[in-house]
C-alpha cells in the first residue's frame, strides 16, 4: 500500500522557479500543473498515519508513533542522539520535515525554496556515514534552513526580490559549506524582508510570513521572518539568519523562538548577500539555547569556547537591567522582562539597574540608520534604479535617504561608532550581561501597519528600537521567550553581552529557559497544524 500526498501549488512567484512545494522544488515550473504527487512506501507497507499494522513485514521494528507535540519540538541535539543510536534515519527525519512543510507552509509562508532533492541526497549521505561509523559533526543528519541571503550552489539567492530570483549562484556561502561538511541536511531557503531591510517582516513582492501565534495575520518580525516562522511551526529544527539592527532578535521575540545575534565578525559572511557590511552579523534561530550553542561552535570553530566540563550556574553572575532600552516599551513587555530579571536573581545571579547611556548615544550617532541605508543603497543601487514592479516601494523609500546622505554624515557616523564601542564595553565591564526587552511591543496585525506609509515607518522603527544600538556598539545579544502578553503573544527578553561573550549569554539563556520552560519553550497554538506523524523506525 502506498501513501499519496499532494503538495499545494505556488501562486506567489513569477520568477520561474517552483516554490513552496515540499518535493521536487527548485526546478523550473511545469506549465499547466498545479501539484506534484509523491508516493512513498513505509517498511511495513502501511501509511505513516496508520496507528496499527495488522501484519508487519519480517524484520521491521515497532512503529514510531510519537505525537506531534512531542516530536515537533525535539531539539537538534535530541534528534542527533536518536540518529547516533540509529533509532531513526536521517532520510526519515528529513521526510518528516518535508511533509510538515508541504502541509503547513501554504498557511505560514516561511519558505522561499524547498530543496527536497538536495535534502534527501544529503540525508542519504549522512545515513551512510553513520552506518560506516564516520562522525562528521555533532548534528550529523539533522536538517536546517537558511535565510534566502545565503548562497547555495545551483540555487538563486533572491534576497527577497524576484529581480534576483532567476540566477543560480555557482558556490555556496562559507557557513553552508561548513554545515554540509558536518553532515547537516539543508531543507531550503526562507523568506525575508526585501534586501533584509526592515524589522516588521513584510515583503510585498514575495509574500509576508504569518506569525503562527494568532489567527489574525500578524507580523513575524524581520528581516529573518521566514527562519523564525519555520522554527516556531516545526518546519525546521534550526535556521540561519542575519542581524543588522535586530533582524534575528525581533522575529525570535515575536514568534517565541530563541535568536542569537553573534559578535560582529564571529561568523563568516562570505557568500551572504549584504545589507550593511559594517553592521551585518550571521546568527542562529532555534528552540533551545543548547542547539544554538552547538551550531555556533560549528560555524566559528576557531573562536569557540571549549565545551563546559561542569554545569553552568547563575550563582555569582552579575547582571544589569539596561534602563535606557526601556524607552517607549509597552507596560506588559517591561513587566515580563523585569519578572525574568527577578527570576534570574532568585536563581542566584546578582541583578542591578544601570542607565547604559551608550545605547541612546548609539542612536544619536547613527541618525535614521544612516550607516545601513547608505551601504544598502550603494550595494543595491542598480536594482533600485530599475523601477521594477517587483521592488517593494516601502523599502525603496527607506533606501532613498541613503541615496541623499552626504559622505560627511556617513563617515562621521562611522568615526563616532568606533569611538563609542570601547565606551560601551567599559560600561559593561562590571557585568556578565545586560538585560532588556527584545522588542518594545508584541506582534501587530499586518493590516494595522499596511494602512499608510507612516504607519509602516513608525512601526518599523519601533520594533528595532531595543536592538539597533547593539549592532552599532559591536555587542552580541540573545532573545529568549519570557512570557506571553494579555493577547497570548510572545514576549522576548534580550540578554546582551560584551564582544566575544556569545557563549556566556547563551549559557544564561539556557539556565533561564530550563527554569521557565523545563519541558521546552511553548508551542504556538497553530490552527493549521495537521499533526504529521513521523515514519517508521528503520
Automatic annotation (TrEMBL):
- Keyword annotations: Hydrolase
Key word Hydrolase present in the record?
A: yes
Question: Which Pfam families does the protein's record reference?
Answer: Amidase
Q: Which PROSITE patterns match?
A: AMIDASES, PROKAR_LIPOPROTEIN
Gene3D superfamilies tied to this protein: Amidase signature (AS) domain
Give start and end of each Amidase domain.
93-506
Provide the leader sequence positions.
none
GO MF annotations, alphabetized: amidase activity
Q: What is its EC number?
A: 3.5.1.4
Tell me where on the tree of life, at the top rank, the source sits: Bacteria
Protein name, UniProt field: Amidase
